[in-house]
Amino acid sequence: MRDPIPDTVVLSSTAKEEQYVHAVYEQIAEHFSDTRFKAWPVIERYLKELAVGSIGADVGCGNGKYLGLRPDIFLIGTDRSQALVEICGARQLESLVSDALNQPFRSAAFDFAISIAVIHHFSNATRRQQAVEELLRIVKRGGTVLVFVWALEQRGRRRFAEDQDVLVPWVVPGSRSGNRCNDGELDQVFHRYYHLFREGELSELFQNVGGCSILEAGYDRDNWYVIARKD
Fold first, then answer.
1. Most CB atoms within 10 A, among 5, 7, 41, 186?
2. How far apart (Å, rounded) are the C-alpha atoms in residues 19 and 30?
């Protein structure tokens, strides 16, 4: 596994996210999708505890691995990556291309919303707060939101220093490894921007937004997560 590097790129937030998030996922979508197939326990529990007939949104749905987990609820996915939305479509999953900061849904449209490993890709605090505000906007009063973000204090394979803003390599192996996603012999390396959340930072983000109560907060799979109810 290649080491992350501190983010020293001087670009506007939108330009940085375009170059080091959006453009990267368009290029790695197929290989990324091949690695995303198993539901994480906290998310699976959250979805399975929802009432039958619940309506929700998966903001930043990726390849849609959570969209078909429960056939007795309706979960629509949105993602900034056209390539990932096309993968969802090929799997007969409901999804559309959309920006997490500007969802194409009316306010209070959903019973719940999830956003898994998305908000850490926003490159300043204002945009991360806007992402949480948008999730709360689209759920009904009394509805819940589940958010996962990468932790700075990871206990798995990755180890980070004190830098919270980093560029993390994604390696698509060359064809010599039998990889169908890269027809060249050499590995392709792409760097994705991440803001690594310190313990308590995600809960503080929800508290700063207001209008919600935190029902549960914790650590799972090298991520911090929060489940909040809209007041």
1. 7
2. 18
Give the three-class secondary structure for 17. helix
Q: pLDDT-based confidence at 177, cuts 50/70/90? A: low
Q: Write the DSSP assignment of 80-137 as a string of letters.
A: S-HHHHHHHHHTT--EEE-BTTB-SS-TT-EEEEEEES-GGGS-SHHHHHHHHHHHHH
Its pTM surpasses 0.90: yes
Tokens 């799979």: give the residue.
221
Cα–Cα distance for residue pair 29/89, rounded to 1 Å: 13
In sequence order, the β-bridge partners of residue 5 are 167
* Strand bridging mode 223-230 / 212-220: antiparallel
DSSP conformation class of 155: -
